[in-house]
Design a protein that fits this description.
The structure is a homotetramer. With about 250 residues, chain A is α/β, with parallel strands linked by helices. Helix content of chain A is about 35%, strand content about 25%. Chain A contains seven helices and twelve strands. The first copy, chain A, has a nine-stranded mixed beta sheet, with helices on both faces. Chain A has a two-stranded antiparallel ribbon with strand order 4-5. In chain A, β4 and β5 form a beta hairpin. Chain A is globular and about 45 Å long. Chains in contact: A-B, A-C, B-D, C-D. The interface between A and B is medium-sized, with 28 and 33 residues. β11 of chain A pairs antiparallel with β4 of chain C.
Chain lengths: ~250, ~250, ~250, ~250
């Protein structure tokens, strides 16, 4: 595997918090990250390519093309809160080794920029979803877990697949604090409502006040991207195979 | 993965255009490349082997053998147009990482030879094909897209799988201009008619006048090679699995 | 693949014996290793991570997380016997190459610490199990095999899959003495009884007197971990595929 | 992938011919190589391990173990003919990349020892087999092919899978002469009769007079090894998947 990080700028940040926002169950992380990027007018400063991403191009409506990629943005918090590092992208890696390498490279870079705190977002697939959907969490350590519980989350029991789980685990190995916010979702479509509750928890935790009134726009755009990428179809198909084999291809 | 480029000659070329011509849907690129090589009396100057190609040998009619491989040819344009670099072969790589490495090595080499423009060809699988078949395109950037549209192509919507798509994406990352010409095809046999329309667009774009009267010969030979390679059968089988899993094995 | 060993301490050991205890058939090795760690109050001195482990996190009951990992412990034998190196973990590697790398790294480290003797444990899946279950063995060499036979074991006939087999083979290549103790088991649940007989043989061979009265506790804990990891379910599913495809995913 | 060659001796050989003898269709190559090793009292001088071999150990009847491995032997021809390098083993590599690496390492070593000629053996699976079975061949070049035809072989048409084919292809790239002898076989059991005809052709080509009266012994032993390795069962199962997916696992 070869994972290449192209960095356009090395931002100076104050104790930034890394927010993981790659496509996953219910696209909760992906919609949330896109919304944060817009609301914070976050700046794109790095692009990541991996030979463990799929070998294809995706067309844009105008006939342009885009490739499977990950990006890093930084955003200054509006309310005197902490700066954010936002990890956005249209894919996770296709192989386990590719996932480890991707995650390792992003954490390397985050640490270089002074980051000691990582939050991953995700959906928690359920057959039925409560109203409002319950937010679950799991953390790198029990002290951090207490803070997550204080947000009104419940203890997640089980496995957290893919980047959302791997990142918490690898962050812990680096003595970074980390937790995952996982919102109940049916999981097969971009779930705005689940994303809203992930962001409400995030707002609370970071003392931010991100406006959620335009969240539908981010969800709609995510849906559009995903349809072109064939991802939504994939989710439905993958679901049949059971969650353990869950792996993103774009 | 190990990808080895053996270069027999380092040609001096004037702003060459790289034409990708590996086997793919409808074998449009593969037939077109073979035809260009013959009509331009293009010279073979590099051979590429990868451990991501299949582990087998294919026999020739006389009992000789050939291996999965890629080749590079250069051709001087007949009509004062630009020189061509033609990327020909009997296989794509079997793995995603192998595809990235193969494509990266070819683009490295093309750039060393002064190439800043890449055109990939391919079929666009449809259940029904218009007469004449519609040519679609997607480009590295909107300026290039305008030129492709001016050829009478339509905007491609969706995913461009394999080398044809990956190459446009990776070219864009290197600030090379690139577009893909994708012709409607049923896709399960070497499609001469689709190839003809790809070459007509190419002729128009490059100001060339490649004679297409012998195109049937290139198609027949491609068919013969593919039958020995078991490729035609494979295409039909692969088709069932859906396009997303599409991956070439010789 | 990348396999990283983090070593917290370099213990001084007297001709230690390496005991392999990763999850496998019947979880015999895994329960036995956990029990040994507790009874010997063994000290954790190294942690091993591999990009061939699955990309996820597992939650603990309190909302903490743990990652797929391997660990090394050393234990001083109670009765003037040999020191033990205990190789414990919650996963084997997902790929063949990952298994070779993992096993090679552990044997490297064991040899650095003066180890020349390796014992692997495992279950031997049978449709029916005798009472008491028969212990089978296979060794790096016939001299070692005689010692294993003297413990009342029978000659194992067939294949020893995964780490239990690979380790004996790789140890032999390094001129280390090695044998495998494989106990009859139905194999689809953490088998305390099979583990008891593995440990009885081990006690006898090493001249130890490990108390087995608390073995149920280790088995119960192993079961708890495995349930969270989804491993027990996996075993049942994997079983259908036949033993040859047997491969651990956490 | 990591492929390790351990060389016990660097023999001085006169223009040796490399004979490939790994397990494959009908086990023709494997039986033939074992028979040659015995009849020529060939000397084992190198052992090859790869992380692309399966991760297991196989027990011997006495309780010893052996690992997936390849070996190289040299044999002095009885009748003033050329020396032989015999490539024997109980497995091919499990991955394409592993096959390329394995084959490349063996050819490197053969070339170091002055080898310029490579013969691969194999079965050619047919639904029905003539009596006597027809021998087919394919060669690196047409001059070599003429020599193979002169042995009474027919031109092989199609694909030669795995090491038997890959080796001819990679030998050709190194400007070594090479051909493959492929004998008709039903292919699902160790086929003594097919092997006899492979060796008759080999005798003729090399001007040797290898006694074939003990060939049954080599076949019986190969069968025994294969049964322990679970290979014979595997062949039958693999057959269902079609030849294209044919890949050896021990």
């Amino acid at each position: 595997m070869v994972c290449i990080v192209e960095m356009f700028e090395k931002p100076k940040l104050e104790k930034p918090v890394l927010i993981e926002g790659l496509p996953g169950i219910g696209f909760v992380a992906n919609i949330a990250a896109l919304h944060l990027i817009r609301e914070l007018k976050a700046v794109r400063f790095a692009e990541i390519h991996s030979s463990a991403f799929q070998d294809l191009a995706i067309t844009t409506a105008e006939g342009g093309t885009c490739s499977p990629l990950n990006e890093l943005y930084y955003g200054r918090s509006q309310d005197g809160g902490r700066d954010l590092l936002i990890w956005y992208g249209n894919t996770q890696a296709l192989t386990t080794a590719g996932q480890y390498e991707l995650c390792g490279r992003v954490l390397d870079l985050a640490q270089e920029l002074g980051c000691e705190y990582v939050i991953t977002l995700g959906g928690y697939r359920q057959e039925e979803v409560k109203n409002p959907p319950q937010v679950y969490s799991a953390a790198s350590d029990l002290e951090t877990m207490e803070k997550a519980i204080a947000l009104g989350t419940k203890v997640m029991v089980g496995q957290i697949f893919g980047i959302a789980g791997l990142t918490v685990g690898l962050a812990r190995l680096r003595n970074m604090k980390s937790f995952s916010l996982l919102v109940e979702t049916l999981g097969t479509y971009p779930d705005t409502e689940a994303t809203r509750h992930a962001l409400l928890s995030l707002n609370k935790f970071l003392g931010m006040n991100i406006d959620l009134s335009r969240l539908d726009i981010a969800a709609a755009e995510t849906k559009k991207v995903l349809e072109v990428f064939g991802l939504i179809r994939t989710v439905a198909e993958e679901k049949k195979k059971g969650e353990q084999q869950f792996r993103w291809s774009i």
